[in-house]
Amino acid sequence: MIGENGLAAKLLFYSLVAIMGGAHTGDSYAAVAPKATEAEAVRFLQQASWGPNKATMQRVQLQGIAAWIDGQLRARPRAYPNLRFYPESQPANCVDTCARDNYTYYQLQKHFFTNALTGQDQFRQRVAFALSQIFVTAQGAVPMPAWMRTYQQLLYDNAFGNYRELLFDIALTPAMGRYLDMLNNRCQTPVPANVNICRNGSIAQPNENFAREILQLFSIGTFMMNQDGTYQTDGAGQPIPTYDQAMVEEFARVFTGWVLAPPLRGVGGEVPNYKVPMVVRRNTQNQEMHHDRGAKTLLNGAVIPAGTDAEVELNLAIDNIVSHANVAPFISKQLIRHLVTANPSPAYVGRIAAIFSANLNSADQLGVVTKAILMDPEARTLPDSAVDPDAGKLNEPVVFMLNFLRAFEAKSDGVLNGGSRGSAAMNQDVFRSPTVFNYYPAEYEVPGEPNLVGPVFGIFSTLTTITRANFINQVLFSGIPVSLPNTPKGTALTLKIWEDVADTPVDLVDRLSCWMLHCTMSQEMKTIIVNAVNTVPVTNLLLRAQTAIYLVATSNHYQVLR
Questions:
Q1: Which of 105, 306, 365, 493 is least enclosed by beta carbons within 10 angstroms?
Q2: Contacts (Cβ under 8 Å, ≥6 apart) of 191
Q3: What is the gyration radius of the CA atoms in the chain, in angstroms?
Q4: Selection from 368, 338, 345, 375 nearest residue 228 by Cα
Q5: 78 has which bridge partners?
Q6: Are 380 and 65 in contact (CB under 8 A)?
Q7: How far apart are CA 502 and CA 518, in angstroms?
Q8: Over the chain, what is the mean pLDDT?
Q9: What are 68-126's pLDDT values in tens digits?
Q10: C-alpha 302: how far from its chain's center?
Q11: Which H or E run contains 25?
Q12: Phi, psi angles (nearest 5°) of residue 422
């Protein structure tokens, strides 16, 4: 923080008094000392939220980090807008905004960005977005936004819930069923006469997509892990696989027989029911139609006996997966990477994995785990650049954009995804991951840096570097104009407080160092920016402020969260 006579200290003092009501004695006020410094609060909110704004900063400083998290864990989730259910084939009378709102992801993406900028449940939003990049679905196979809305609401509502229950719910979500082909998946062996195998005489081979991805991406990963997230190796020093093709086939047989619930009444007639979990297909005698009822051998030699009902099998299979030793370090490590650092130490992963396992049956397991991730010493201690130059992570495009917009109190209609300067142009099209492996590979190594993991570098290029700079330039100097029907506001920043201090470049840059870089800007960088600001006439305070902000926002120091 700058000195007690600086702008930051003055603003903080008066805001503390306003929030607490103060203790009035004559003509003086007594304010409660903050429980987190400005630098601590900024850095924390860059990890735990979509970035600091003045109101959130005040709450964190007053409450302290742990108390703020606890409040966020109790906050009621907001709902995505209820979208009308249309048939997959666009009706002739659905044109213009009808087509945009019901056959594109426009409304969902608009709500996502609006809620990110203004919503109070910041921590839940960040965790839900992280989960959406672990349990991936995407528009390619889930074209209708109403269906995707149901899936994203599930992640949002259960961001702080129990991992096992979330995995079970995901398995039966129609959007996931369609995306990874569990929907209408059928049994393998045509033995109509044998009720323990399959009743319908189908000759279809069970689809293996969901079976493979629930193992590889949603739970245990490809190779055996120690509890600290490091890989186990065999006598030849090679990593040990967690499963093989035969195991995928066994799980594929488990995930058979599920179909959509009865159709909904939508616009233009009946539409597929993507609002509620899938159900087992049964005949008029209530017998399972497409489920493989043969015996199956799962992880660690667990056997499901022949003749087991589909619902029971699904629960047994989920329990079998969740009990695997890899789940705790695998999921813990991914959540750490999304929230704090791309290369967590084994000790960090081990501490979080232990908490994950200790809360395996807790209703608030993920809430406990994510709080522990953010309260861990490795998250709360500013890394020493000289000792650990590779700490932290490159901010993904959506986080980068929202951090900047919230920092400068942006007023926006939420139309921030499309166009040449939106998140899609930076290779992160919200809810439209190009593959089930997310926008970027979880284990992507930084080019030229063996053994240094930097997942977001997988979508970082010369082009996206320019796109990031163009986004900052546009929103800072001109704002994002209204470009589509029914988008009344566009996007614009609030820069008055920065304009007010721009007559003194040293003070301006000191403030930006604390507000954007948690007070870590080097003296060399400060000098460069001060000199740049001084080239702008003092009569143009707005441009002086914009110049300084632009140079900070486009720097590697701002784009890499440490």
A1: 306
A2: 197, 198
A3: 26
A4: 345
A5: none
A6: yes
A7: 19
A8: 89
A9: 999 999 988 888 888 888 888 888 888 888 888 889 999 999 999 999 999 999 999 99
A10: 33
A11: strand 23-25
A12: -85, -175
Question: Nearest-CA neighbor of 545 among 501, 493, 513?
Answer: 501
In total, the chain counts a number of residues equal to 562
pLDDT in tens, 397-418: 999 999 999 999 999 999 999 8
Q: How far apart are CA 429 and CA 298, in angstroms?
A: 36
* DSSP per-residue letters across 412-468: E-S--SSSSSSGGGGT--TT--SSTT-SS-TTPBPTT-TT-B-GGGGG--HHHHHHH
Cα separation, 114 vs 5, in Å, equals 36
Please choose, from the candidates 398, 404, 396, 552, the residue with its C-alpha nearest in 3D space to the C-alpha of residue 460.
396
Alpha carbon 118 to chain centroid distance? 17
Q: Helical H runs in 28-105?
A: 38-48, 54-63, 65-74, 97-103
Cα gap 200→186, rounded to integer Å: 9
> Which candidate, 535, 526, 542, places its Cα nearest to that of 555?
526
Q: Could you give the CA distance from residue 474 to residue 487 in angstroms, rounded to a whole number?
A: 18
- Identify each DSSP E strand in 396-549 by its residue range: 411-412, 491-492
Tokens of 219: 């739970």
- CA 177 – CA 175 distance, rounded (Å): 5
pLDDT, tens digit, for every residue of 27-63? 332 345 568 999 999 999 999 999 999 999 999 999 9
Residues 281 and 98 sit within 8 Å (Cβ to Cβ): no
